[in-house]
Amino acid sequence: MKDYIRLLNEFESFPTLCHWFRLIAHQTWDRIRFARDHEGLKMFETTITQNLLFSFAIYKMKYGAPINMYEARNERANGNDIEFWITLQDGNQLRLPMQAKIMYSGSKYPRMDHVGQIDSLIDYAKGIDGIPLYLLYNSQDSINFLRYPDFARFSPLEIKQFGISFISAHFLKENYCNKSFDKEGKPKWKIPSFFDLHPYHAAPWNNLVCHSEATDLDSFLSYLNLKIHDKLVGAKRGIKFVKIHPPIDAKWKPLEFESELTSDKNQLGFISPGDFDALPTPKETPEEQKEKYEKFNPRFLISIDFRKNESNLSNSL
Questions:
Q1: Which of 17, 20, 205, 242 is 20 to 30 A away from residue 163, measured at CA?
Q2: Of 311, 310, 304, which Cα lies nearest the Cα of 66?
Q3: Cβ–Cβ under 8 Å, residues 50 and 41
Q4: What are the C-alpha distances in Å from 271 to residues 22, 40, 42, 60, 275?
């Protein structure tokens, strides 16, 4: 808790996006740990994602940050799917569709094992000239780190920055998707653990905003910790900055704090069915539920535009 208070004080003294992302990652780590340590409390991907959206709305309202949020008009959009648009100071825009996954017991991500889901994410990214990522929500008992030399150089404060991290979907597909077999000999996911992916393959999510001065693809990808994989295959994958900024199309509607009590009932979704444990509603058949969770169909879009920043909110640490 002392480390969290320290980050909070730093943020209040210098409320940059970088400091805010660091604070939220630390908070997410502690929230998951709190829920897992108390019987009867549950924490799903949708819970954390909605907490992030609310925090974004508060941050924008208080500090005038260059952030806009949107919700899909399609009610069947998946609450675990999210898309980031990051426009750098020179006008380059990078689009990052993300599939959110939370860590479970055994420090693993069992919900990655969904047939077709990762391929759908990668195909979606190709269609928008984006980089497909998995957004990971993490927490660990601190005693676990004593067994892993890779974390020896990290302080407890630094470790909790992995409370929210991201990793290349291409890396996961080529190293874990269908790399094991079930009892019938059919291929299935080799489920990775937190320690399989961190700290070398996954990056803290604060890397999305703590280095906004990077304007070329190579340097930006190096800050995102994607140089290990996506940078090497960028040419053949079609990964590039998007120079043209088309208006938000009709499939999105603004997601704003001021209208939360008077807008459509599905605004923010709260804790409505959106996690994998939800039973099919009368309006959705089991086949429709299956398609909903195997097809990448982002529920939320978050746009961060550093060109509009006039208050040093994007400064690096």
A1: 242
A2: 304
A3: no
A4: 25, 16, 11, 23, 9
Q: How far is CA 23 from CA 8, 14, 256, in A?
A: 7, 12, 22
Alpha helices in the chain (DSSP H): 2-13, 17-36, 45-63, 117-127, 156-159, 169-175, 194-197, 217-223, 230-237, 286-294
Q: CA–CA separation, 62 vs 72, rounded Å?
A: 25
Q: At what angle do helices 17-36 and 2-13 cross, to 10 degrees?
A: 160
Q: What are phi and psi of 26, to 5 degrees?
A: -60, -45
- Say if CB 303 and CB 65 are below 8 A apart: no
Helix, strand, coil percentages (3-state) for the chain, rounded to 5, are 40, 20, 40
Name the residue with tokens 């998946």. Answer: 78
CA dihedral sign of residues 256, 259, 263, 269: positive
pLDDT in 10s for each residue of the chain, 317 residues: 788 888 888 888 989 999 999 999 999 999 999 998 888 888 889 899 999 999 999 999 888 888 999 999 887 888 788 999 988 777 778 889 999 999 998 899 999 988 789 999 999 998 888 889 999 999 988 777 778 888 888 888 889 999 999 999 999 999 999 888 888 888 889 999 999 999 989 999 999 888 766 666 666 667 676 644 454 444 444 455 666 566 677 888 988 765 444 444 444 443 333 443 443 444 555 555 555 567 899 999 999 988 775 444 555 44
Instruction: Map residue 135 onto helix, strand or coil.
Output: strand
- In single-letter form, the type of residue at position 11 comes to F
pTM of the model: 0.84
Based on the number of CB atoms within 10 Å of its own CB, is 235 exposed (0-12), middle (13-18) or buried (19 or more)? exposed
Question: Do 149 and 207 contact (CB within 8 A), yes or no?
Answer: no
Q: Say if residues 15 and 22 touch (Cβ distance below 8 Å).
A: no
Nearest C-alpha neighbor of 196 from the set 165, 234, 231: 165
Q: Distance between CA 105 and CA 85 in Å, rounded? A: 32
